[in-house]
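G., before I forget:
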Amino acid sequence: MSSSYAADLELARQCAAGDEQAWERFVLEYRPILYRAADALDPSGGARDLADSLYADLYSKSLFRYFQGRSSLATWLRAVLSQRYVDRIRANRRMEALPDEERAIDRADIHRYESRRDPPPDPDRGRHLRIVQDALNQAMTTLNPKDRLRLGCYYAQGLTLAETGRILREHEATVSRQLARTRQAIRVEVERRLRDEAGLSDAQISECLAAVSEDAGPIDLDRMLAMPADRKETAPDRSR
Amino acid sequence: MTNQKPDRDATIDRLLAGRATRSSGNSTDACFDADTLAAWADGALDAGALAAAEAHAADCARCQAMLAAMARTAPLAPAQAVAPWWKPAFRWLVLLTAAAAAVLVWTIVPPRDGRVAVHQVSESAATTPPPPVATPPSSREPATVAEAPPTSAVTTTPRRETQTLAEAKEAELSRQAADLSRRSAEGAEADKKSPAAGASALADASTRTDRAPTAAENAAAARAAPAQPMARTFSFGALETVIVSSNPASRWRILQGGQVQRSADGGATWQTQTTGVSDTLSGGSSPTPSVCWLVGPRGIVLRTTDGRSWTRIPFPEAVPLTSIRATDDQTATVTAEDGRQFVTENGGRTWARAPL
């Protein structure tokens, strides 16, 4: 434990022990932090109830015992709130779509997507979509974990370069450069697979990419990033 | 073939950006607890633990979402930002360059009679109240400088009178701009732009509305116009923004919720295009019929180079962007809501702050 967090740990211990003065100090210093974090998560106020619920759990003293002093108390509170917020959103999504349905971005999904467009402007579009999807899926597996995390933060989670950099301890300019490099690496790998495995010529590759560029259909980056580890070919970490 | 690579990179970018946002994967024992998540955020994980955490988060949608939530709730702490290695040296370089420039100017410019200058200033100070602070030539409102009376007016007109005229003109312009903002706000409840953003949207010298511009609008637009307009943006009041390219037959219009429509026949028919963002965009610039740049909230910058597909351009800050002026598919100047301007000359690969 860092000595800089010792005071926070002591405050948490006092609050857990029912020290009224410590609790008053906690309320004064940390309740605004909790509400600011809730408002940052959901500016419409939808996360305030989570903050209130967390606050109530803290008042019941049991939650403080989980704070180990590995971070500041303020950061830990944000982490607990973030965890509950994400889990609630995921739970709500599961209510909307059953997990089996949720994972159904596959060939059948592409077929449904294709069939609801009438009439298809290009008879080869469905095939193009499929082979690009496959090549893209495979290309993603060749990335190292840090590159996949960077892509996930930027594209799947919609974070800014600065926010992504905060997570990865990189300057935003570095994040930008690394994203460009990763995109290029994916492009090269997709081209290689389209050429070597799908047997396309360069002109056909161009045609194929142009077709999916217009309307890529359903692509689930989260799922691509969450492919089983045994399907991944690890590449050396070139992100530093 | 070589020139196809940027297009293909853009296609990959579009494929990645157009991903569905559904999260898959369930919580596992390996998922972070709040303690680990907080330790990561505070930089308290050792190298081994951090590598393991990164490896897990790379493939776990839930933990990625938690990291994203942590990033969004992080308090602004510029001092803790990771600074590039050259930044401290660059500060000193700027100071030294400024000092060298000052010495150079002092050496080259012929000396004037200091006693006369002091006398004139003293005399003016004794008879007139202090003049308002002058706007620097490259401030956020360059049109104010452009509109200033010619130098001869200053030299031939008594100071008090010049100041009164300038004040009256300034007050009139302010009143007209306020009227314009009020009418815009009344005109469309859906328009979320702040008055500042509205003024900024009018910033292009070629900005116009679908109705005849009033004198007040002209005045406000002229007041906010940059010295060197680069591309044309047409605004339909507060309802929708239309961006007309150098060939008026090609134009885009911005709708709510990140939607964009394009017309290739001067606005007779429109086709909806997918941009990949859901935020309502705030402005755009189309230097050629097939190239268009768009900006929006949270640092959104989009560009099309073929008039059909849109690519999100990485932007260094998640600030609301109110307007953009582009000269081609590589060069553009973006204005943020707080007035700062950022320039790219390489299609958005890098951005630099425009000097104030």
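Residues 159-187 of chain B form the longest helix (29 residues). The domain at 194-213+225-353 of chain B is CATH 2.130.10.10 (Methylamine Dehydrogenase; Chain H).

More on Monday.
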